[in-house]
Amino acid sequence: MTGVILEGLSKRFGPVTAVDDVDIRVADGSFVCLLGPSGCGKTTLLRMIAGLEEPSAGRILIDGVDISRVPAHRRDFGMVFQTLALFPHLNVGDNIAYPLSIRGVSPAARGKRVAELLELVRLPGFADRPITRLSGGQRQRVAIARALALSPRLFLLDEPLSALDAKLREAMQVELRQLQERLAVTTIVVTHDQREAMTMADIVVVMGDGRVHQAGSPIDIYRNPTDAFVASFIGSTNLIAARPGDAGAVVPGGLIPGLTIPPGGASVSVRPEDIAIVDPASAPIRGRATFVRDLGASIEIFIECDGTGLIAAATRRERHDVKAGAEVGIAVAADHCVVLRP
Amino acid sequence: MKRQSPGRAADYLPLAFPAAMLTLFFVVPFGTMVAVSFFRRVQGSFYEPAFVLDNYARFLSIFFGSVLGFSILLAAMVALICVSVGLPFTYLLSRLPRRLQVGWLVGLLAILSLSEVIIGFAWSTLFSRTAGISNLFAELGLLSAPVSLTPGFGAVLTGMVYQAFPYTVLVLYAPVARLDPSLAEAARTLGASPMRAFFNLIVPTLRNAIVATVILVFVFALGSYLLPQILGRPQHWTLSVLITDQAIYQSNLPFAAAMAIFLVLVSLALVGLALLLVRRAAV
Known about the structure:
The structure holds two protein chains of two kinds.
Chain A: E1 4-13, E2 16-26, E3 31-35, H1 42-50, E4 57-62, E5 65-66, E6 78-80, H2 92-102, H3 107-120, H4 136-148, E7 154-158, H5 166-183, E8 186-191, H6 194-200, E9 203-208, E10 211-216, H7 218-223, H8 228-233, E11 238-244, E12 248-251, E13 254-257, E14 266-270, E15 275-278, E16 285-294, E17 298-305, E18 308-315, E19 327-332, E20 338-339
Parallel strand pairs in A: 3-8, 3-9, 6-7, 7-8
Antiparallel strand pairs in A: 1-2, 1-4, 4-5, 9-10, 11-12, 11-14, 12-13, 14-20, 15-19, 16-17, 16-19, 17-18
Helix pairs in contact in A: 2-3, 2-4, 3-4
Chain B: H1 16-36, E1 40-41, E2 47-48, H2 54-59, H3 62-94, H4 98-112, H5 116-126, H6 133-140, H7 153-178, H8 181-189, H9 194-205, H10 207-222, H11 227-231, H12 239-249, H13 253-282
Antiparallel strand pairs in B: 1-2
């Protein structure tokens, strides 16, 4: 069995359980994002994979070999730290060559490999620059080049882009993904930014409270969240309490026709763009607009239906002339709804 | 932000207080000492104002030269031992849980509250033949019979290292604690063993702090005059011991002042040299 397998991995710090019985399979060459709010255990999980924390329970298998007790410096993984951890007393070239010099690579071969890596991260000719003279984006690239110097079996990144400004971050997300595809290196990234995860990942693993809530492709997680935590963490969503009815799901202010709800009721997740604004006279759900946020490219309409607040998003093309305070009718198609696990 | 240069005399007013304190408590006493070093000693009395170079001339003998050399060597050894033990110690200390760190630091600070005399007599008891640690070694079979370890060079060195060690840790603690822990972790993920990461990364990153600490402990040890007398033989006496002897027991203040000034100049020169070497290595 090739790839990376985490089996029942747990980490306890005293009474606190940071990572709780995590099972993940990462196929060779895939790009996995560990996504979750801060304190959800995603960084601890990554540090266990890197060998910087010892698991309290469970195993880490690489191509079927248990490496849970192998010290970090014998794992041969490349890791990019949140602080980047570039060595301030060494220049760019020496930073990248550091892992090579530890392995006893000859100076000539080292120089060649450094030039190759700098080419790869688009910083050709930067070898002699001191680290202190680089911009944030350039440091980022140096940290990536250094982590890739030994062509690692596994490439780990801990919030690698969090120090960059928004524009540069978006550009680096695309670049990082392209780099990973070119090298076909198995990659695990920790992030709290769902946009970043959606941009880069083959598989998104949503974590909360040390547990894996859901793992799957970004679009699958967006379309079919299994619980309220995932639904609200990935993109924005409306969580509506629904009860089973004769013609569909009974929701505050009306009905979603054709939607089956288990007896006892359940939460239904509906994305703002899936809520259609219709004529109030014939609408299945009626409510009142409380606020209209016109962002230019899209319009968000805040609607109150029988005490429950909803947000409907419309594009510029289907601009509705809804004003705050007006009565509005909305319709939700049953196949746009996700009935969440309680 | 543009910094405005002070224009009127009133702009310099905030400097008046520190300037006055410096003048009163540093410039005046030091100036007095410089002046006294050129005065003539009156045998059987004290000294009279004059301008003679006798005090400096007397100093340029093989005896005082070798005492100076020994003092510098001793201080340098104390500084190097303190820092080479203190740096790994402080590094490991900074990785401990907060509660343990505080415990260790309080213990080290407690040493500072001990008087030099107490430290001296404690070590001289500890190194003695009748009641010292050699009895323990003899009991354990490491030695055939208890021996006296004091007075001797080893005893002087141990006592001075003991006295200077808390300062070393206190000075190193802040920069070591501020160090980004992911530096060492990054080195480990890149294949460096913990030991290698320490020498390849922690030491060079902290180079400035290390040099500053070596200089501080060196200067501190250079001024020690009680421990060499309590734990050493006369050949282990430092220049500071001789200065004390001249100033207090021989009532030869001009000569004591001359030696003190010479010591200040030599240590300033050494500190300057060390900084120069470090700066050159940095380029």
